[in-house]
Automatic annotation (TrEMBL):
Keywords: Membrane, Transmembrane, Transmembrane helix. It comes from Nonomuraea aridisoli. The chain crosses the membrane at residues 5-25, 31-49. It holds the Pfam family DUF4229. InterPro entries: DUF4229. This is DUF4229 domain-containing protein.
Length: 72
């Protein structure tokens, strides 16, 4: 669960930082501010959070590949 939590918190933090920077740059329309922050943070997370994304993918893959216990 830890890699998923780390990745999610990093994505939320990146979105918040992007939102704050755009707000400080003078973007005050709420809809445009949120959409622009979402797009910019999405592109930035693709580049910056590749290690975390790989860890989440590995974690999910290991959970899926794990054999289920057989019940009698």
């Amino acid at each position: 669960m830890r890699p998923v939590l780390v990745y999610t918190l990093c994505r939320i933090g990146l979105f918040a930082v992007t939102l704050l920077v755009l707000l400080l740059l003078g973007l005050h329309n709420p809809f445009v501010l949120i959409v622009a922050s979402f797009v910019i943070s999405g592109v930035a997370s693709y580049v910056l959070l590749s290690k975390q994304r790989d860890a989440v993918s590995e974690r999910i893959s290991n959970k899926i590949d794990r054999p289920k216990p057989q019940s009698d």
